Amino acid sequence: MNHIDDSAALYALGSLDELERRRVDAHVATCPACAALLADAERAVTHAIEADPQYDPSPALRARLEASLDAARPAARIATVPRAWFAIAAAFAILALPVGFLMRGTMAPPADAQFADASFTMTATQSAARSAHVTYAKSGDFYAVMVRHPMRALRVAYVHPDGTMETIGTVEPHGDMGVAIMPIDHKMRELALVDGGTVVAEARLAFN
Amino acid sequence: MPDPRADDPALERAFAARERWAFDEAYARFSGLLYSAAYNVLHAREDAEDCVHDALLRVWNNPSAYTTERGTLRSFLAVCVRNAAISRVRAMQTRAGAQRRAAVVESEAEYVEFPDVIEQSRLRAAIAALPDEQREPLLLAYYGHKTHVEIADALATPLGTIKSRIAQAVRRLGHAMQPGAAV
Questions:
Q1: How far apart are CA A176 and CA A170, in angstroms?
Q2: Closest CA to B163 of A189, A73, A10
Q3: Would you give the end-to-end CA distance of chain B in angstroms?
């Protein structure tokens, strides 16, 4: 497709049909100049949208969206861990606390483990937790992210090589510690603990 | 709550990276605008909520749909939802009974909040300042939900001319509505 030119305004106004709109979408995905042109047109039309009467959706819409997003979440990683594993992992986590929580850097992995345990480096000045640690089960089936003194629920995110993050679980605070148990179903290099939109801790992982 | 009209690059980057918190935050900030965008086209609560639901999920489930190069998340989502609503209207118009349905749902309107009257008057002034030849197709497009082909037909004007006039009108509107711009 050629540059979108005048079609940017038509797109933003809703005056293109479905097929024309898809062509524009495909073009702007690879053409930064046209993406900027379309962005300008959309910003202009948004002024008109804002000037129309405003209404609020019912609370049910949010609940519906949340249900749809949860249903679509890939593999529901935390939920796929069997209950028995959770109990084992919790015991494992408690045993690991005296050593793991106070250390920085990579710990020596258990002799028969595929993955090496690691501690998070806290990055935020006002930390949402005191320290955090990653421990792998000897079986290689799952790992636990343990957070000491979490102030609130923190997201655990896999950091992709391009810097983008993918949330893979949540550490919920329970007293002095929070634990998230996750099956090992991808090869992670970097994990982040995220408080709202702020990365509060990062860990580089090593595995064989 | 931050000003929902303010640009937020951190939120936009996180949304583009499909971080769940960014979806929640975007919904918290923009849900009124998005729902209004749909409602003002569809005039039916249930349809408008369906439209917002489907459009947001479509964007979220397609990682390439929104990138930061596509501009502000607020404008991107507002136009996306409004376009989805217009598509629904066009689909409904092709079905028998669409007019009767539109008449029935009129009573569902629940006015919640007046739009920003200053912004509204600025917009009206900006539209009024357009040359007739640009204002007419713009109004047919925005308020009439007409395609450029239908507008060209209605105004008996060549398609290329209509596209060009609408584009000029939107550019002028954009300039006029910039902060500090004199209309």
A1: 16
A2: A10
A3: 30
Q: Considering only CB atoms, which chain A residues are within 8 Å of B49?
A: 57-58, 60-61, 64
Confidence label for A196 from pLDDT (cuts 50, 70 and 90): confident
Residue A109, phi then psi, degrees to nearest 5: -75, 155
Residue B43 touches chain A, beta carbons under 8 Å? no
How close, in Å, is residue B86 to chain A by CA atoms? 7
Confidence class for position A160, pLDDT limits 50, 70, 90: confident
Q: What is the CATH number of domain A77-204?
A: 2.60.40
| High-pLDDT (> 90) share of chain A, % | 25
β-pairing, A154-159 with A190-195? antiparallel
Examine the predicted complex and report whether its ipTM is higher than 0.85: yes
Measured from the Cβ of residue A162, the count of other Cβ atoms closer than 10 Å reads: 6
* Assigned CATH class of B114-183: mainly alpha
Domain locations in chain A as residue ranges: 7-55, 77-204
Smallest CA–CA distance, residue A107 to chain B, in Å, is: 29
User: Any residues with CB less than 8 A from the CB of B117 and at least 6 apart, and which?
Assistant: none
